[in-house]
From TrEMBL:
InterPro entries: Proteasome_assmbl_chaperone_2, PSMG2_sf
Composition skew (Acidic residues), residue ranges: 335-349
Gene3D superfamilies: PAC-like subunit
Protein name: PAC2 family protein
TM spans (from-to): none
Record field: compositional bias (Basic and acidic residues): 350-405
Organism from which the protein derives: Streptomyces endocoffeicus
Pfam families named in the record: PAC2 (PF09754)
Highest taxon of source: Bacteria
Annotated stretches, region: Disordered: 278-405
């Protein structure tokens, strides 16, 4: 029996989980949960017993001095609760952050589900990140999957069809499904050629997708600026290596071609709604979103080297090749410039048709005029030849005819 002390009654609680290790490329998922914990000042109320789930030769404890006293921190999974209060809507988030366990995965999942049951959690969202063939210059792809067909339809998610090795994210999601707890996994794709943590662009993309899912605005803090710095740094590294630059360009072309069908009005409308929410929720320009088309309107990330490595920044030049606009960029630009309604759109179509008809008529008239001029030139040439023949003939008409022939 799990006993919770000091945890108040929660409002519409959602459990957000992330685990370091195999499911966490670039530390994007665990950093996202850590960001939520910092921004909303989470309070840890429980931690799992490290002895039950971790091999300390694989995940070693760390030692530090605090006030001259040595303290050992054991690898484990901790649970904290935060109140996501945006002024208009409040709900509580139960944050689960730890390391993928080394053993007894089923017991591990059952213990987490026990906390979810006691806290009245309505849904479990598990964050993950994987390595993929995706260019760093494009928005980070984030896929939302679930094992529940009803949940897939209601939240516009994909039903998971993956087959192969899985990690604790997949195991926990299936455990939720068997326990009757709605569960969703959000996966961010991280470029495999720049997989070192941190990856603020992937973290930003996960948070934006999570924001849409739980309908609570998430403060981004410095993530947008960190994403821009990361982007400039990777651009610079790619520009210095011709092979890498060529490879990135091939990934860009493949990505843009594959995403052409997705450049729909519905997708643009979703991005515009997110922009309006963020604009109304905080002063100044909208925060970065890494799932919007291309630039720092959605945020750009960066990050090379291990934890603590400096970002390669050059805000004045960036030393990077300019991003080629995608079809989605052009459509978004056209939609932004079009301020009319359906009537205006119909009128625009008529105007275009009328202009095309006028152009076609002018072209036909020009062709006729040109043909007439050509015929007149031909007639003039024939008359000239006849005059010349008459001059050369002299007195013999037969000789003149032979010359003409």
């Amino acid at each position: 029996m799990i006993e919770l002390e000091g945890v108040p009654e929660l409002i519409d609680p959602v459990m957000i989980c992330a685990f370091e290790g195999w499911n966490d490329a670039g530390d994007a998922a665990s950093t996202a949960v850590g960001h939520l914990d910092r921004e909303w000042k989470g309070e840890v109320f429980a931690s799992l017993d490290a002895e039950d789930y971790y091999d300390f030769q694989v995940n070693r404890p760390t030692v530090a001095l605090e006030g001259g006293v040595r303290k050992i921190t054991w690898p484990t999974t901790r649970l904290s609760v935060v109140r996501a209060d945006t002024g208009e809507k409040s709900r509580d988030l139960v944050l689960v952050r730890g390391i993928e366990p080394s053993m007894r995965w089923r017991s591990f999942c059952n213990e987490i589900l026990g906390y979810a049951h006691e806290l009245g959690v309505e849904m479990v969202v598990i964050l993950g990140a994987l390595l993929g063939d995706t260019p760093h210059t494009r928005p980070v792809p984030v896929s939302g999957v679930t094992s529940d067909p009803d949940l897939a339809r209601s939240l516009d998610l994909e039903e998971t069809r993956y087959e192969g090795p899985t990690g604790i994210v997949g195991v926990l999601q299936e455990a939720c499904a068997h326990a009757g707890v709605p569960a969703v996994s959000l996966w961010a794709a991280v470029p495999h050629y720049v997989s070192q943590p941190p990856n603020p662009k992937a973290t930003l993309a996960l948070l934006n997708r999570l924001e849409d899912l739980i309908t609570v605005r998430i403060p981004l803090g410095e993530l947008t600026e960190d994403s821009r710095a990361w982007q400039l740094g990777v651009d610079q590294l790619a520009a210095e290596d011709s092979e890498v630059a060529e490879y990135v360009q091939s990934l860009e072309e493949a990505r843009d071609t594959a995403e052409l069908p997705e450049a729909s009005g519905e997708a643009i409308a979703r991005e515009f709604e997110r922009y309006l929410r963020r604009r109304d929720g905080q002063p100044g320009p909208a925060g970065g979103h890494a799932t919007e088309s291309g630039g720092l309107a959605e945020g750009r990330e960066g990050g090379t080297g291990g934890p603590g490595a400096p970002y390669l920044r050059d805000p004045s030049t960036g030393h990077g090749r300019p991003r080629k606009p995608s079809a989605k960029d052009e459509m978004a630009k056209d939609d932004a410039e079009d301020t009319g309604g359906d009537g205006d759109e119909a009128m625009d179509v008529d105007d275009v048709k009328e202009a095309d008809d006028t152009k076609e008529a002018d072209g036909a008239k020009g062709a006729d005029d040109g043909q007439g001029a050509e015929d007149r030139d031909t007639e003039g040439q024939d008359a000239s030849r006849r005059d010349e023949g008459r001059t050369d003939r002299g007195g013999s008409g037969d000789e003149g005819s032979g010359s003409d022939r």
